[in-house]
Amino acid sequence: HTVTRLHRVSSLAENFSVFVFSSSSYSKSLYGNDGLLPARWQLRYSGKPLGEQLLSSPTLLWLGPHLGLDTHTAMELLCLVGAALSLAATLVEGLRDSVVFFCLWALYLSMYQVGQVFLYFQWDNLLLETGFLCILVAPLTIIRGSRGVREHDRVTFWLIRWLLFRLMFASGVVKLTSRCPTWWGLTALTYHYETQCIPTPLAWFAHHLPVWWQKLSVVGTYFIEIAAPFLFFSPLRRLRLGSFYLQVLLQVLIIVSGNYNFFNLLTLTLCLSLLDDQHVHFWLRKANMTNNTSESRLWSWLCYLVELAVWSLMIFGSVICFDLQLDTTKNGISSRTAITYHQFNQFLKTVTIPCIWIGVFSLTWEMVTAMFRWASPAWELRFCGTVQWTVFAAATGAMFTVSLVPFTYLEHDSHAKLWPGVRRSYEVVDRFQLVNSYGLFRRMTGVGGRPEVIIEGSNDGVAWTEIEFMYKPGNLSAPPPVVTPHQPRLDWQMWFAALGPHTQAPWFTSLMYSLLQGKKDVIELIQTDVSQYPFHQQPPAYLRAHRYRYWFTQPKADGSRWWRRVYDEEFYPTVHLGNTFLESMLDQHGLKDKSPSRRVFNSTVAQAMRWVRSQVRGVPAHTLIWTLIACSATFCLLQGLRKRNKGTTLTAEDAATVNDCTENLEKSDEQQAVEEEEGEKEEGVPSEDEMEAAEGEEDIVCDDEEDEEQEEDEDEERKEKDEILRKKGI
């Protein structure tokens, strides 16, 4: 895993922190002194030392009085610091650091501790767990100064993949363990699109797809959430890539059909842990630095056969479990659940413990391979590497061990087999939300129609006016909004409140009481533009709430309407200030503020926070978030283009500089040659010309010597002939 991919995960996680902290601009309306559930009620200053207070409730809000801030101003300060730090780290690579992630995690944990019902969502837990893992994954640049790849990166990064497995596998399993008849009957999606909290416009079209397609989509959901996660730990990369694209497909479909804030975007970020460098380079159109030519053809074909067998087995199992058959009469595919709850429960008992062992073997392999990579010849590097590996391997092992407790909540017998020491360790760290249990869409609600609470106000008790919220369904002609990645917390809780009596939602009484008082902070939760609120000039004298049943309109119905509804029942009786029922409900739920009025803090920080609040007041949260997204995306795009142009082309000045350097090098070479020649002359060493002349003279001398020798030979021969003739007397 390259440091580039680690930084991409860190950067995306930083982005989600921007979304979350920016969405928390409603903190004053929800948790302020005039909010629905004031946060200061959660902080009881009993005179204990600060350390004990932080241990009992780990939140930085305990420091508010020391900074001259009340609780809700301190919350706004935390939101502002978190959003600014997240945005800065998104834009500046050097700030994607472990220290920065620790600060973000501590800031959001502080908000979570006092968030009460408005922050108790699974994606808030997921963000906290992911943020803590990023502390282990991200480099420690600010202190150590190096952003290079560390050999233990693969070990800590493995925890991201394990978190993704727990999230997806649990989300699929709970749909069947809940015994919900719609999930077992494969009809859940025929209700889901119109009964989800805040649907999108595309949900209307998805709702009217054929029933056989909706049932087949449920089968596909089981396939992606229960079967595919086992491929996350496959040693064959194409199986991991296949599971990656299946997860991406599911998350994208959820995003376009429902407003689930940052949850699906964060899940997509976790899916990056399934990729390898080769595939990332393929995306970025970069040359792959890994050489795989050493693989034999036989091994490649063997891998192909194994992959084909795995996919075939998974598809065959799906066909058998859900009795998939071609239906020529409906031009589709028929499906039904062919397994029983007992059979699925036996399957769950069979695979839960093996899942743990798969995680153990996979993590052990990463640890062992990382340890051998530290085989450096220098003992100093080897010692430092061993220390780092030991620390991070121990932290990773501890996180994995503690996560087994929430993971085994899926199956009671497996949970009972865990070592008691593991459960005690989980209880110690539970307050910090380091590991959590997951399981979304456990049961399908709204089978008999989407329940929706409509609040009505009146000045005389005769003429009633509906109070319309910005996001949740109400007006039959208003199209469903698109607010991802923002989560309107009040609108979401209105959806949950409609599922039961008002006594299960104590905050609803606080909402009615605040609207009767005309509190502007609470009104901004309903309409950011207060002028759109029907009672913005004068608070209503009377309030009541009714429950309706909503459905999407049919394709051939009135095209100007998205919804149709029928009256169900009274949800909250007619109340007014001083009403006996209202007063009793306030006393019953402890919603009356009996504490003495607190003094207004006028410190410099408090004044600065009030000024910032006045500047952003009236701006919808989703508009603010999309503005931040657009600005950061534009900046990152320009920065990427600048780096690309800088790396691939040379400017005119750069080219001139290169030419000057080349000429200087050539001149330097010529000058060096002349200096060497002069030095050789001073030392009496002949030059090249002199050596050539000398060689020529030597050749001439050699030729003369050869001629003299030839003449001497001829003279000797002549003398020998004369001597022979003389002896013969001639």
UniProtKB/TrEMBL annotation:
GO terms for biological process: protein maturation. It is found in: Endoplasmic reticulum membrane. One of its GO terms (cellular component) is endoplasmic reticulum membrane. The keyword Endoplasmic reticulum applies. InterPro entries: LMF, LMF1/2_C, LMF1/2_N. Residues 672-717 have a biased composition (Acidic residues). It is a multi-pass membrane protein. Residues 718-730 have a biased composition (Basic and acidic residues). The chain crosses the membrane at residues 73-92, 99-120, 126-143, 155-174, 212-232, 244-263, 298-326, 347-368, 388-410, 619-641. Residues 120-281 form the Lipase maturation factor 1/2 N-terminal domain. It comes from the Eukaryota. Residues 434-573 form the Lipase maturation factor 1/2 C-terminal domain. Residues 663-730 are annotated as: Disordered. The keyword Translocase does not apply. Keywords: Endoplasmic reticulum, Glycoprotein, Membrane, Transmembrane, Transmembrane helix. Belongs to the lipase maturation factor family. Involved in the maturation of specific proteins in the endoplasmic reticulum. This is Lipase maturation factor. The gene is LMF2.
